[in-house]
Design goal:
The complex is a heterodimer of chains A (297) and B (272). Chain A is built from 11 helices and 14 strands. The longest helix of chain A is centred in the middle third of the chain and has 16 residues. In chain A, the strands form 3 sheets. A 6-stranded mixed sheet of chain A has the order 6-7-8-3-9-10, with helices on both faces. A 4-stranded antiparallel sheet of chain A has the order 2-1-4-5, with helices on one face. In chain A, strands 12-13-11-14 form a 4-stranded antiparallel sheet, with helices on one face. Chain A is of the alpha/beta class. Chain B is mainly alpha-helical and 272 residues long. Chain B has one domain. In chain B, helix 5 crosses helix 10 and helix 9 packs parallel to helix 14. Chain B is globular, with a radius of gyration of 20 Å. Classes of the chains: A alpha/beta (297), B mainly alpha (272). The interface between A and B is medium-sized, with 32 and 26 residues.
């Protein structure tokens, strides 16, 4: 069942078209990654589904209904930067969040502050926090009172490597608990690790969407390496059955249609041409490669 | 409704600037009135005939029942002080982007504006309460022989002061709401209220058949005309101003309703 249906959403800022008729569904219980280069419309799209921006055309439905305050109360959100009252402490900021979204109680505030490791600094003003702490507080606010859905825009912004790893684990944990998570991110590696579904945007257009596994397995890649990479490239030029060969440093990537790659044949082909391979790996396509291919970067 | 009030109170309760500005208001209102009262006492205590004459001419503007009028007039000069906090409360929301966070967290845009309406109403109430208490205390101190039936004769200035304050704070809020930046909004409000509108009203009074009475702040300024002792300089004009209070009540209500209607419509349509 789709928890969110986005239908032909369009949005312009003056002459700039930020979104050009974007449509896709977010299945319940998924971790849905929205990817795209800067200016592709990720934050605009999230802002529209959270009613911060008004779409020029198109619509979106949460649980089959148009967005409303009651629905947003069930969504924990972090949009762009952490937005809090600078003169208030973490506790008082979360009290305001709780007073608006009506989720949980005072104990939940303490629990969530412990979860994001801000409990010791709970009575300090927000303005005294580091960027990472501000981001953690925003994540805490989104988690407050167990929302049904999480919408996270660049949730690892400002976090150190440990914080990023913790965020990844948290997302996985929440996914296992049945939460639906929609996240926009630049960190393709992170998205690949945690997302079950993905939508890729480019200059306001939806380039592709679907399950991560389905998107990534439309091609097989054989990675090969030899002492003389130029000789290897010349030899492989007469190899048949592949789609393309791309040089990547001292390695060559040979692209095949899904299920057509045969590493043992490549090995014997090279051996016949007097080349000994020191590297031969059958890889599934990485999200990063797919992303660059689709977005033309 | 109560939840919105509670949330706004959570925002204000620990906001140092709010308490600082309210403390300044709490000092400035009695300050200006005590200053003029002392001046009055200085002038009229003289044993010479001039002192007695002045007292005879002026009466005692700080005694009951005139104290409510006189104190309202002098207190209203300082409306820009609570206006500062009103503008800060709205511009803060844009600076910290908490206006959008409130919506994301589950308020409707109407809830947000209703919350701010409550802020303006709350500050108006506090300021009016402060003025009324000061007027009463000064009245008690300045009246030589208190006649209980006289005390509240001019108490109509309490709701008039409240309406004037609410209207002018609403205009301050509108400026903050449209400009979004605290210092620019404060500058615009002070420049407009102190210089621009006074100049425009003055020119209009002389050249355009007093059209200046329809200027945004002037409309509600005329709810509290100059006190009687100053008004006696131009008795005819003073009587006219007293007679126009009821008309200006209507104008002020219409203007204030328009201000909030503009805020409501802009907030409903604009991106956050």
């Amino acid at each position: 069942m789709a928890i969110l249906k986005i239908q032909q959403v369009e949005k312009s800022y003056g002459k700039i078209k930020a979104l050009k008729g974007v449509s896709f569904d977010v299945p319940e219980g998924s971790v849905f990654g929205i990817l795209g280069p800067n200016g592709s419309g990720k934050t605009t799209l999230l802002s529209i589904i959270l009613d911060v921006l008004k779409a020029d055309k198109g619509d979106y439905l949460w649980f089959g209904e148009p967005g409303s305050p009651e629905i947003r109360k069930q969504i924990g959100s972090l949009l762009e930067t952490p937005n809090f009252y600078h003169y208030l402490s973490a506790v008082n900021n979360l009290r305001i969040t709780q007073s608006i979204n009506e989720r949980g109680n005072e104990e939940d505030i303490a629990a969530v502050l412990k979860k994001v490791k801000l409990f010791e600094r709970r009575n300090n003003r927000f303005s005294t926090y580091s960027l990472g702490m501000k981001q953690r507080l925003a994540v805490g606010a989104a988690l407050l009172g167990s929302p049904r859905i999480l919408v996270l825009d660049e949730p690892t912004n400002g976090l150190d490597p440990v914080g990023i790893a913790e965020m990844r684990e948290l997302i996985k944990e929440l996914h296992q608990q049945g939460f639906t998570i929609i996240m926009a991110s630049h960190l393709l590696d992170e998205v690949e690790k945690v997302c079950t579904h993905v939508a890729i945007l480019k200059t306001g257009e939806l380039v592709t969407h679907g399950q991560v596994d389905e998107i990534l397995v439309d091609e097989d890649i054989i990675e090969v390496g030899a002492a003389d990479v130029h000789q290897l490239a010349e030899a492989l030029a007469s190899l048949h059955g592949h789609n393309k060969i791309i040089k990547d440093g001292q390695l060559l990537h040979i692209y095949y249609n899904k299920g057509e790659a045969k590493p043992e044949q490549i090995n014997s082909f090279c051996f016949k041409h007097g080349i000994t391979l020191y590297h031969l790996v059958h890889r599934k396509k990485r999200l990063e490669a797919k992303f660059f291919e689709l977005t033309g970067n | 409704m109560l939840k919105i009030l509670k949330t706004e109170w959570l925002k204000i309760r620990n906001y140092p600037a709010f308490w600082l500005v309210m403390a300044t208001t709490a000092l400035s209102y009695p300050g200006i009135n005590l200053l003029f009262w002392n001046e009055y006492k200085e002038i009229t205590k003289k044993e010479l005939a001039t002192g007695k004459m002045i007292k005879m001419l002026l009466g005692n503007p700080f005694a009951f029942p005139d104290t409510f009028h006189t104190t309202a007039f002098f207190s209203s000069i300082f409306v820009f002080i609570p206006a500062i906090v009103v503008m800060l409360l709205i511009t803060n929301e844009y600076t910290y982007k908490t206006n959008r966070q409130n919506i994301i967290d589950g308020w409707s845009r109407n809830h947000f504006i209703l919350g701010k309406f409550f802020d303006v109403a709350l500050i108006t109430l506090l300021v009016t309460l402060l003025y009324a208490v000061i007027a009463y205390i000064i009245g008690m101190l300045a009246t030589e022989s208190i006649v209980s039936s006289d005390i509240w004769k001019e108490a109509k200035y309490i709701p008039l002061f409240m309406l004037q304050t609410f209207s002018q704070l609403s205009i301050a809020f509108l400026i903050g709401f449209l400009v979004k930046k605290a210092f620019i909004a404060l500058g615009v409000f002070v420049f407009y209220s102190v210089i621009l509108e006074n100049a425009a009203a003055g020119i209009a009074r002389q050249k355009f058949h007093d059209l200046g009475r329809f200027l945004p702040l002037e409309i509600s300024d005329r709810l509290i005309p100059v006190p009687a002792f100053i008004g006696r300089i131009d008795e005819k004009g003073y009587t006219e101003k007293l007679a126009s209070i009821n008309t200006h009540i209507v104008y002020t209500i219409i203007l204030t309703a328009l201000v909030w209607a503009v805020i409501y419509l802009v907030n409903k349509k604009r991106d956050l």
